[in-house]
Amino acid sequence: MPLSDNYTKNITVIDKTISDHYLLSVDLNTQRPSKTKRTVTSRNWKMLEPSKFSTEFHEALKTLNNSTVSAGCLDNTLRRTLDQLLPLQARTISQRPVSPWFSLCIKVAKQHRRRAERRWRKTRLTIHRHIFMTHRHKVKTIIQNCKREYFLRKFETVTSEKELFMLSDHLLGRERTMPLPSGTEIDLCERFVTFFNDKIANVSYLAFSLIITPKENVCYKTICGKANILASFSNCEQSSYVCHRFQTSTKTERLVEEIFNSKTAT
What is the pTM of this model? Predict the structure, then answer.
């Protein structure tokens, strides 16, 4: 189904003359996945007054018995003092994992951008706003170049089609998941045994069908042992072809012996 014009732009077809295929470059207008949230607790250390904290902490130490003071007791006293002056505050933040293409130049460019933004918000001058916009555009350009170089290096190191598809799925957000089967331990064991029993039964039936089919040039004795063949014949009804070929054989054992004594078809 073709995409709408709202999702695609800057479509470019490039002929690399490498093969009869063309390189298609397109910008997709898609939404970024939402970031995961988590709750953290912290203290606002900027509101701490050193002189007041020192006074409160010394007063709390005077209540302690010097003969039984331990490291844990001092730690608890310090925490109680901080809880009085700077209580813990809970806040929700977004998880921001470090991008693999992040580098020192991006970090420095972001620092310059933030410094220019603070200056513009403080003065509200047009010249400072223009400087901030210049730094913001510079950060975007550096990030795009670093990201492009990172993925180019990734594609250059691909050695197999499997790695190529895995990298493409990662770029498209197609993360593969392998969910484990659900159920109790006994139920999983029974399902496991049933699966392999069915597999063995299907293989045995296939091997048996090969030997009773006259058009198939296959030797059954190379597939199963004599005991397995004997069990298969005892559990299955002989076909018309088997009865026609072994009219003088009245016992299954003789039929199996003739199979094993026959020449192997190649």
Answer: 0.40
